[in-house]
């Protein structure tokens, strides 16, 4: 059995046709049929039943496909990892907030000890970064908020707080305002899929506040300018709006009874091999902060 046999089997499963699989792999139909026959002979099982004009997996075939997907996934990752290590490339994805505020400093720190490794950065919202980690499109991800996929492991590496952002002439005074205020004024929020938006939606849900955003944007600065212009209020990471607050362009306040602390997480796929470059970059992330909680990726990766 070879990787070629497994690729033919995987393609036949996906296409439900030997002929279509052969075309997809740019091989002849007899060659594809022969590969399947060799697999069945090697293991002494029938992998497919022919029902009408379709090929359907047998129970043995379904089990074989599960192992095939894992083997091919690991093999592809091996080839890609070796290729990138040879070129000295590390693929990093960051959410918009992390990419704006934290990533430049992390990359600078990493390059002090690994100047020969180029960091390829992708900046998108947290949901997109998590998806890229899942599909091995990036080696590791940096997001704020929770991990949603069981295949991905997350470690807290930094914390900050969000703040209620108000126009400078907002009619209500005080450093702490009731959460009901979120339903009384137009909300200017980040887009769906961002960690900040997830936090706001959670607050609204927990407190039974029905509020439809008047503004949605991927740009924190666009939201700050809109708040400054009196178009509404927002909840944003305080470090990203501190300068605007100090210049008097907007006001910042807390929400009564609401914990606005956020955790930033380093993400890797649970089946990902942690190369020396990945471990070194993770160490650069950890040097930003020393959270008391959070599972160490390095410890989880250690052999039993």
Q: What descriptors fit this protein?
A:
single chain; 304 residues; alpha/beta; Arc Repressor Mutant, subunit A; D-Maltodextrin-Binding Protein, domain 2
Proportion of beta-strand residues: 15-25%
Say which CATH homologous superfamily of the largest domain is assigned: Periplasmic binding protein-like II
DSSP helix fraction = 40-55%
Q: Please tell me what the overall shape is.
A: elongated
| Average pLDDT, all residues | 86
CATH topology of the largest domain: D-Maltodextrin-Binding Protein, domain 2
- Major beta sheet summary: 8 strands, mixed
Distance N to C terminus? 30 Å
Q: Gyration radius, to the nearest Å?
A: 25 Å
Following the backbone from N to C, one meets helices and strands in this order, namely HHHEEHEHHEHEEEEHEHEHEEHH
Low-pLDDT stretches are 290-304
Count of all domains: 3
Query: Structural class, please?
Result: alpha/beta
The CATH C-level name of the largest domain is Alpha Beta
| DSSP, total strands | 12
Using the 3D structure, state the CATH architecture of the largest domain: 3-Layer(aba) Sandwich
